[in-house]
Write a structure and sequence with these properties.
By secondary structure, the chain is of the alpha/beta class. It has a domain of 231 residues: 3-Layer(aba) Sandwich (Glycerol-3-phosphate (1)-acyltransferase), CATH 3.40.1130. The longest helix has 34 residues. It is built from 13 helices and eight strands.
């Protein structure tokens, strides 16, 4: 199983890396040429370019693994999603929460302008980190003395953002684990705070700063609560790569920014109260295995990400073929005084190599569509079938 998975995941990983570098290069060119002339024109272009990369990851969760994301919210909020600026505040339940947010942003039409507050080290990651930097993500060092001015200036830059954006803020500061929950419970007991059961205690400084600087141009806070039903295994990046499905329940409550209190201390307490309410909501979800207080909205599964990943596969493989031709790997060398038999043999080898690479592209595309439309995502029989033919490309024909 591991060998079969690697035979497909590794090529797809290479395709993501190569296509990501192409996206980074395009972003860099527009950053140098367009942004100095018009920042908002650059932002509109970058939104489209960045989406070409993020859609590959949406495909991973949507089509490859077949993760089912169920959104519970009222109809009015559902129709406003993607049509307004929003500060997104969520509990940090799993290591794919950011991907869940991207899926919701993609359904709402604002994937290219979905932003987040990230660790400073993230921006140095090739492909993803570089694209985030070009897209104006906010990078912090987790030291308030250093981050206060950085956060303030970053938030102020968003004031004239030309299209609706979401800014995600995980105020718990880290992913939920039982060990961290135990530490949070001990701290709450020692300070007289409500003892959490399903969430961690929020760190309010960043939230207070965000509200303070965004209050005048961001109309809403999206209070998101993520839960995993009892019947579903918890989603992880490893499960995604293996193509293993999960179910994620998302509860979204729209809160008006203008209804928040004015003072910093009151805003900090408001954030803490919001997480106390989240805790109670998760208790109710644990008992009922659903969010019964909100409507289940139909978010669908658009084919856009499937078309984008398929296009990238074709472009990258065809580009590789062209590169090999330019490097004369697929072209017979011009040797002096070649005999007709030698020339004929080299031409047969060239033709064979081209056919083998074409067959590889064909079976990779077949598997891509097979796994995407399979109800279970990763199909072992199909993988073994593909691996057999990939092996035949380099050892000889199997028919």
């Amino acid at each position: 199983m591991a060998i079969a998975a690697a035979a497909v995941v590794v090529p797809l990983g290479l395709i993501f890396f190569i296509s990501g570098l192409v996206v980074n290069l395009i972003q860099a060119v527009f950053f140098v040429t367009i942004r100095p002339l018009s920042k908002n024109t650059y932002r509109r272009i970058n939104r489209v370019v960045a989406e070409l990369l993020w859609l590959e990851l949406v495909w991973l969760i949507d089509w490859w693994a077949g993760v089912k994301i169920k959104l519970y919210t009222d109809s009015e909020t559902f129709h406003l999603m993607g049509k307004e600026h929003a500060l997104v505040v969520a509990n940090h339940k799993s290591d794919i929460d950011w991907l869940v947010g991207w899926v919701l942003a993609q359904r709402s039409g604002c994937l290219g302008s979905a932003l987040a507050v990230m660790k400073k080290s993230s921006k140095f990651l090739p492909v993803i980190g570089w694209s985030m930097w070009f897209s104006e993500y906010l990078f912090l060092e987790r030291s308030w003395a250093k981050d206060e001015n950085t956060l303030k200036s970053g938030l102020q830059r968003l004031r004239d953002f030309p299209q609706p954006f979401w800014l995600a803020l995980f105020v718990e500061g880290t992913r939920f684990t039982q060990a961290k929950l135990l530490a949070a419970q001990e701290y709450a007991a020692s300070t007289g705070m409500p003892i959490p059961r399903n969430v961690l205690i929020p760190r309010t400084k960043g939230f207070v700063a965000a509200v303070s600087h965004m209050r005048s141009f961001v109309p809403a806070i999206y209070d998101i609560t993520v839960a995993i039903p009892k019947s579903s295994p918890s989603p992880t990046m490893l499960r995604l790569f293996k193509g293993q499905s999960s179910v994620v329940h998302v509860h979204l409550k729209r809160r008006l920014m203008k209804e928040l209190p004015e003072t910093d201390d009151a805003v900090a307490q408001w954030c803490k109260d919001m997480f106390v309410a989240k805790d109670a909501l998760l208790d109710k979800h644990n008992a009922e295995d659903t969010f019964s207080d909100q409507e289940l909205q139909n978010t669908g599964r658009p084919v856009k990400s499937l078309l984008v990943i398929t296009s990238w596969v074709c472009l990258v493989v065809l580009g590789a073929l062209k590169f090999l031709q330019c490097r004369s790997v697929l072209t017979p060398p011009r040797l002096p005084q070649q005999s007709p038999k030698t020339t004929e043999k080299l031409q047969r080898e060239v033709k064979t190599n081209k056919i083998r690479l074409s067959i590889f592209l064909y079976y990779l595309s077949v598997f891509l569509f097979k796994s995407s439309f399979s109800s279970h995502g990763f199909d072992l029989c199909m993988t073994e079938f593909v691996c057999m033919h990939i092996n035949s490309l380099f050892t000889g024909y199997s028919w």
